[in-house]
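I hope you will forgive my troubling you with a question about protein structure. The full record is reproduced below for your convenience:

——
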Amino acid sequence: MNPKQNNKSMNVAFFIYDQIEALDLNGPLDVFVKANVIAPGSYNCYTVGKTKEAVQMEADTMAIIPMHSIQTAPRPDMIVVPGANPDCVMAYLQDDDFQYTLINWLKDYYDKGTIIFTVCTGSMLLSKTGILDHYEITTHVMLLDALEKHNPKSIVKRGVRFVDQKRLITTAGITAGIDAALYLVEQHYGKELAETIIEIFEYRQSTCNRK
């Protein structure tokens, strides 16, 4: 099977940090990896951290070594921002180092045209960037009220799995990241590829709220 809609591989950077939620990361990552196995050259996936030192997954169950630091990473066409436990996310909003290094790296690429795809509480991490302003957005049900409070210029959508605003895709909790990733594969490379991945996953995809 060959990609039908895009003529080049998409660089997809997975933004990782301490206490990241495992399925927020691995769900969408596996969708794009499977797409590239089935249709070689569709996605080039890699992880990016502040440095190349290992980061701890939620509850310190495992450590992940990023493939790249923010200084060495290839230019991404899309950045995936997984979430973390709500308490961790709210702490990161007050963490100046996190905001001025990792988040500024992400915003710089957004300003250059990179697509941002947040999973679960990952959208909350962007609340001080202005990226979410004037968009319809969503997040995990546990942080919907907080997302609304911190983003008064945005329209927070409730009861949806994900929201597509062209250059910004935000999802509800955890497994919704898989839904959005499958949706993006279909948008980028066609329905046949997305349906093949769904069959391999034995997964029932949900519908979306898109603009």
